[in-house]
Write a structure and sequence with these properties.
10 strands; 353 residues; single chain; Beta-Lactamase; 3 domains; 14 helices; Arc Repressor Mutant, subunit A
Length: 353
């Protein structure tokens, strides 16, 4: 997704100097001098000429100068120009596949849960950033089977497996004690009657049957309804996997501002705000890239986020993302995130509904 905020047009020389300054700052994390850029440009320009162009770019809002005697560093607007240039070049092109990401797509994971964990791990390891993978909400899944295992007096372990292989275990506290035979009967009833059906419809149908079926069936169905309601009390809550939080601490941008990094780490660890942010990304097509002050969350404004959705057929199921400093190799990061999302989409397309 190319950001739509209007930006000034740049001539060829200004554009070349801006992009070279961005590339240099990404590599060094140090203010970039005009002398450094004059040595790197294909066009032979004196440091004084480059310095004048950099001053113009600063006036336009693309660069800033931390100190009078220092070189320039990119602003959020400069990063946005850089990223939009990358996205324009990539439109209609296939993202490159990186070996570490290919290992996930060719691995032996047989269920979605394991695959998402592998993608999250490889994504963080390959990018050296914090990786985020949002799993499909329960409402996107269908029932493959459910089992109830008696643990003790009025305690039951519910084991649910979706049609995509995602497994969840939950311990339930019952109002009445049920023996294992009764629990097995309830599980068999649910599997026989509702196997393959979306989870969002099962609760409503159970409730309808409890209210309308003959009295001799009420007890079994009511118990099935009560157990089901306990297992899926948060049907629409997304699960967010996170790896590589430590990478945030390794970035020089964050080491000098302890309060900012503490606020950022709290946001990452609490997950709720990140889930809301990724929900917005899931409404977009193509890569979503949010840079600095484009974040609504103040604690995220020192960062950039790159996200890409994965799908089953044409339905968006979840998203993968990385969070890192604004100073990152955007071209490579966009490719890796996109490829990760494609790997998951390919897995989902091979799985039976």
């Amino acid at each position: 997704m190319i950001h739509k905020i209007p930006q000034p047009e740049l001539d060829r020389r200004s554009r070349s100097i801006l992009l070279e300054t961005l590339n240099e700052f990404v590599l060094t994390a140090e203010p970039v001098s005009s002398r450094t850029i004059s040595r790197k440009l294909e066009e032979k320009l004196s440091p004084a000429t480059v310095r004048n162009v950099m001053a113009d770019l600063e006036e336009l809002g693309f660069l800033t100068q931390p100190h009078t005697s220092a070189g320039r560093v990119p602003t959020d607007q400069g990063y946005r120009y850089f990223v939009n240039e990358i996205l324009r070049k990539r439109e209609g092109e296939n993202a490159d596949s990186f070996s570490a990401v290919r290992q996930v797509s060719s691995s032996t994971e047989e269920n979605l849960q394991d695959l998402l964990g592998s993608v999250c791990h490889v994504l963080s390891a390959d990018t050296h950033q914090t990786s985020l993978v949002m799993a499909p909400t329960i409402g996107h899944l269908s029932l493959k089977r459910i089992e109830f295992i008696r643990l003790g007096d009025r305690q039951v372990l519910a084991v649910f497996v979706s049609s995509l292989g995602a497994a969840q275990n939950r311990t339930l506290k019952l109002k009445e004690d049920l023996n294992q035979d009764r629990l097995t009967s309830i599980a068999n009833y649910l599997n026989t009657e509702f196997g393959g059906r979306p989870l969002t419809t099962i609760r409503q149908e159970l409730k309808r049957r409890v209210e309308s079926e003959q009295k001799r069936y009420d007890q079994l169905m009511r118990r099935a309804f009560d157990l089901w309601a306990q297992v899926f009390t948060t049907e629409d809550q997304a699960e967010l996997l996170i790896e590589g939080i430590n990478h945030l601490l390794d970035q020089p941008e964050f080491q000098s501002d302890i309060q900012s990094i503490k606020a950022l780490l709290r946001t990452v660890e609490e997950k709720k705000k990140l889930i809301e942010l990724l929900d917005l990304c899931m409404q977009q097509e193509g890569p979503s890239i949010i840079i600095g002050e484009e974040h609504a969350l103040q604690e995220m404004q020192g960062c950039s986020l790159i996200a890409h959705n994965y799908q089953r057929d044409t339905e968006t199921m979840g998203t993968v993302a990385i969070v890192g400093p604004k100073r990152m190799d955007y071209a490579r990061m966009i490719d890796i995130v996109n490829t990760s999302a494609v790997n998951i989409s390919n897995f989902l397309s091979r799985k039976p509904q």
